[in-house]
UniProtKB/TrEMBL annotation:
UniProt name for this protein: HAT C-terminal dimerisation domain-containing protein
Organism annotation: Rotaria magnacalcarata
Superkingdom, taxonomy of origin: Eukaryota
Any one GO molecular function term: protein dimerization activity
Domain HAT C-terminal dimerisation, residue spans: 146-213
InterPro entries: HATC_C_dom (IPR008906), IFN-induced_PKR_regulator (IPR052958)
Amino acid sequence: MLTSLLELLQELRNDDDGFEQIFETAERELQRYDIDFEAEFHRLHRSRVRSSRIEENNKNPYVFTRKEFYTTLFRKIIDQLYMEYNTYLSTLNETLCWFKHLSPSTINGFTQNDADHLVNIVPGLDDALLLFQEFKQLAPSIMRCSSILEVAKIFKENSKIYPRASIVYQFMLTLPITVATNERSFSKLKLIKNYLRSTMDNQRLFYLLISSIEYDILDEIDMQKLVQDWAKMKDRKVVVY
């Protein structure tokens, strides 16, 4: 899908007729509101003098035409989008390709080489050989599953028996499915950092965000044990008279 999107962006960038249609549509919409497209353009975009490094005789100002200005602007936007999506696609090809043998239909193709790369990608993994052995033991059970969600149920019941494989699936299933990471983070930020808490420092805000996002893990924490650990860290002495 990303490859098709990159091809579409390239076609849009080189489609002069498409740009012309955009200008005509915009002009028709502005006429509905009695707005002079040409006059507004010249009002907002002043004429500019060429740099002396480019042209010695730079006394005559250079005036952008409407079509030239917006065509250049649109192409810069498309070039930026192409660069970002191309970088994202490269990341997918270089990193996520090592997760392709974790589905029920492809688990038999999981190799030691896959395990070696997963140890370098997934935080919390310490031994590639043990990870490979866990997947070899789990392969028959995973093959009987019809989807990744059924595989997740296996690890929910046996996460302590196969800790490394469980970490891999947890990492894979919690990956963002879109590129809107900043938007999701900002939505969560608005819930945590309201105007009553605007004075909190960044470290406390970060911990609150993590607690809100990973609430399922937070719910499993033994609060009594947490309080005892905190009390040991804050070993306060009370003076008794």
